[in-house]
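pasting for the record
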Amino acid sequence: MSNIQEQIHILVEVQGVELEIHQAGRLVHALSDESAALDRAVAEREDRVSSEKAALDDLKKAYRDLESESKVNAGMIVKSNEKLRAVKTNKEYQSILKEIDEIRKKNSSIEDRMLEQLEAIESAENSVKAEAAELAGFFQSYQEKKEAFAAKEKRERQTVEALNDKKARISANADPKIITVLDDVKKKVRGLAVVPVQQAICMGCHMNIPAQLFNELQRFDELRFCPHCHRIIYWKEQG
């Protein structure tokens, strides 16, 4: 095997390992994205429960305000009734009766609103309980999935680390100048930078290469490039 043939073999190995690294890296990113999506889903559910709890607290506060107002009015009615016992004229008596009637009407309206508020509170409490229960179930599933994603991501990161070590070992046997050429080609092309030629066809761009170049490839005396896609090409005998 010629030196160039050996170097091309090394480049193909390096490229193969780089593909594995890329695939493992994509899986790491995918797992990280899925984990982040889970975090967002939990946060959204927690926000929803918090919002419903806040709304429930507002309903309860509004009910307490109405209750306080009703108590104040009830106290005013008691005082007005006490005043009735002390009046001396019919005009004063009728005025106080009217005052009591207006307070009672006002309180009746408040009590109606309090009943409506109690119904709204009950509905909100049921909703909060349902959302909280759903969140608890989701959170348990979330924790299990997070642990699974973390374990998978750890394994893939270890795989990437092992592959990088493998690439370094293989690259150590390559001519640094040829590795530089490989890096330059990778910057210029998409996909594989080193491809075989079979039946005078570049497997990178699937274009025919000149017959003379095809014959020269079989010598393995120097690196050669596809005239169309500019990838590093080499002759691969069909099995």
